[in-house]
Amino acid sequence: MTLDLHRFPCRRGAPDEPRSSPPWGRWPPSAATAAAPCGGPVGQGCCGRKVVGSASRGTSLAVVDEVQIVRIGPDEWCEFREVRLAALRDAPGAFGASYADWVEADESRWRQRLSDVPFTLVARSTDAPVGVVSGAESGDAVELISMWVAPDHRGTGLAGRLVGQVVAWAAGRGRDTFLMVRDDNEAAIRSYARAGFVDLGIPDGWPPDAPPERRMRHSSS
């Protein structure tokens, strides 16, 4: 399954998550974006750790054309910072949070983000992270948020596998997966439908001054 999405779902109401779907963006980020706050060079995490090195929490979940998909936690905050800032910088008007909101964030804030959202995956190539997605528990379901894939890995099936890992994690907990997608993003809506998501339409009471978004849901059964 290949998802060829130009925009991605959002978690409304969370200040550090996208309010609407960002584009794929540019890669790699600039040195100012990618450098770890502890002074590590581009392509490395804190204290000079290689971004593609072993994660203390993560175990490889899948390999796509030499790209590993790994679950990360607070100890991998530097790696998450690198890929998250790349997405925020590339889509300054598409997120509830902005690059400026997070570029000066300290270690504790990045760790807290990874603690608050219990399921976060990073796709690692040999040089740098090339994708990210999270699953956030929301009531009796899991919301798919923060989806981003580097443009040079678009169309490889990586996006679909990232989505599939979130769906599988939710199903393992007996929960459905849902997401929000811009109403005008017809390509993304079709792609999510092919991935098994059902279009539930724009929720009742949607703010009239906000770009309309459709709710889509994937059943765990």
Automatic annotation (TrEMBL):
<feature type="region of interest" description="Disordered">
    <location>
        <begin position="11"/>
        <end position="31"/>
    </location>
</feature>
<dbReference type="InterPro" id="IPR050832">
    <property type="entry name" value="Bact_Acetyltransf"/>
</dbReference>
<protein>
    <submittedName>
        <fullName>GNAT family N-acetyltransferase</fullName>
    </submittedName>
</protein>
<dbReference type="GO" id="GO:0016747">
    <property type="term" value="F:acyltransferase activity, transferring groups other than amino-acyl groups"/>
</dbReference>
<dbReference type="InterPro" id="IPR016181">
    <property type="entry name" value="Acyl_CoA_acyltransferase"/>
</dbReference>
<keyword id="KW-0808">Transferase</keyword>
<feature type="compositionally biased region" description="Low complexity">
    <location>
        <begin position="22"/>
        <end position="31"/>
    </location>
</feature>
<dbReference type="InterPro" id="IPR000182">
    <property type="entry name" value="GNAT_dom"/>
</dbReference>
<keyword id="KW-0012">Acyltransferase</keyword>
<dbReference type="Pfam" id="PF00583">
    <property type="entry name" value="Acetyltransf_1"/>
</dbReference>
<feature type="domain" description="N-acetyltransferase">
    <location>
        <begin position="81"/>
        <end position="218"/>
    </location>
</feature>
